[in-house]
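Hi F.,

I've been meaning to write this up properly since the lab meeting, where we talked about keeping a consistent format for the predictions we share between groups. The idea is simple: the sequence comes first, exactly as it goes in, then the structure tokens exactly as they come out, then a line or two of notes. No screenshots and no reformatting. I'm using this chain as the first example so we have something concrete to point to.
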Amino acid sequence: MTIKQLLIEAEAIQVGIHESDWKKVIALAAQPLVDKGYISESYSQAVISNTLAHGAYYVFDEGIAIPHARPECGVIKNCFSMVLLDKPIAFQNSEKADIVIMFGAKDSNSHIQEGIRAIVDMLDNKEILVKLRKAKLWQEVIEIL
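Output, unedited:
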């Protein structure tokens, strides 16, 4: 399944979110995945704990954050969630990001190959980034992807 398909299936696209607390953004990104049974309640706390311990290694120069935790931290089923912030924020003193894509992978191989690589491939397209930042509705995000 593609990122687009997984986002639709999980009803996990949030657009125009106004939030300045990175921990709340992590919780927001996780909530639809928890609601649909893709990750456990503990997954977002694992992401926050990892960030506090190791920094926001998942924030990239392009203003993209890809928060995630290890499969054993509560992944039930491979999944993606997208939060588009109205203003970029720093995650634990990182560069600022306004496109947040949380993912959960059931195993370490999927974690690298299907999760991070799929996101990077999609977001390597500058045109897609510009369009995502202009999107006002989740339906627009689906069309862009």
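Notes:
The beta strands are 13-17, 59-60, 64-65, 79-90, 96-104.
The first helix runs from residue 3 to 10.

If this format works for you, I'll send the rest the same way.

G.
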